[in-house]
Amino acid sequence: MTIGTAAHPPLTLAARLARRPRLNAYWILVAPALVLMLVFYLYPLGQVLWISVTEPKPGIDNYGLLFTSASIHKMLITTARICAITTLVTLLLGYVVAYSLVHARPKAQRWIFLGVVLPLWISALVRAFAWVTLLRREGVINSALTGAGIVDQPLSLLWNEFAICIGMVHYMLPYAILPLYANMREIDQRTIAAARGLGAGPFQAFRRVFLPLSLPGIVGAGVLVFILSLGFYITPAILGGGKTLMITEYISTQILDLLRWGPATMLATALILTVLTMMWMLGRVVDLKKLFGAGG
């Protein structure tokens, strides 16, 4: 017995039976991961969504707070501002490092890569407390500035948005450098040489040729850094000293201190939907596999 169409060659019954063990083996391998994702990821997300429309009473009143609550408006504006500043500064610094990586010699590349990857091995908590040591009034930076006579009084570098942005930029740099480098290494350097051969100077060749070709990497790295910045908790909590609330710390306060599960889960749901929307928009603009070095 054979089964087939004009578009697909017919399969004999023996061939179909031979494929079944392979399909069964595939599902046996995939099933544990699917169960874990369902139990520990999708189910809790469903619970968050359910609580957001049932506490303290059924309805969408919690979502109305996005438009009526002054404290939520202030927190969202603060979060957006800090994330935007972090993204901009991270992109500028990351672009310089990625550009240097692309044009560095192999030996220098290895050392630069080590400097980029090494911070990823250090806990965010450790890095945050390291910045506390550097930025506090009696810290290394203020001591150096007052000792050199540059300032008369220690500067207020800690417990504010400035400190939060510094800590977040430090943490986010590898997440900008690596996608940018993956994009830049795909740029054909002969296009730069051709531009120079046609009379363009180094800066003009960079501005007219290299920079436009690297725009997909800039967009991808920018969206990635912004998305990751939205979910920061430890760094703003430590370097902000509780004076600057971002969305994650605000959610934590609502749950742990005020026991307001409804508004907290509403904000968590809104955050998840925002991230998913931005990832969808990013996928529409750039090839994610190629951007992060997974493409052929």
SSE layout and pairing:
Blueprint: E1 2-3, E2 11-12, H1 13-52, H2 61-68, H3 70-103, H4 106-117, H5 124-135, H6 140-147, H7 161-184, H8 189-197, H9 202-213, H10 215-230, H11 234-240, H12 247-256, H13 261-285, H14 288-291
Antiparallel strand pairs: 1-2
Helix pairs in contact: 1-13, 2-13, 3-4, 3-7, 3-10, 5-7, 5-11, 7-10, 7-11, 8-9, 10-13, 12-13
Helix content: over 70%
- Beginning-to-end CA distance, first to last residue: 40 Å
| Continuous helix count | 14
Structural class category: mainly alpha
Report strand order across the widest sheet.
1-2
Average per-residue pLDDT, rounded, comes to 86
Strand residues, percent: under 5%
What does it look like?
The protein is mainly α. Helix 3 crosses helix 7 (161-184) and helix 8 (189-197) packs antiparallel against helix 9 (202-213). The chain has helices at 13-52, 61-68, 70-103, 106-117, 124-135, 140-147, 161-184, 189-197, 202-213, 215-230, 234-240, 247-256, 261-285, 288-291, and strands at 2-3, 11-12. Strands 1-2 form a two-stranded antiparallel sheet. It contains 14 helices and two strands; from the N terminus they run E-E-H-H-H-H-H-H-H-H-H-H-H-H-H-H.
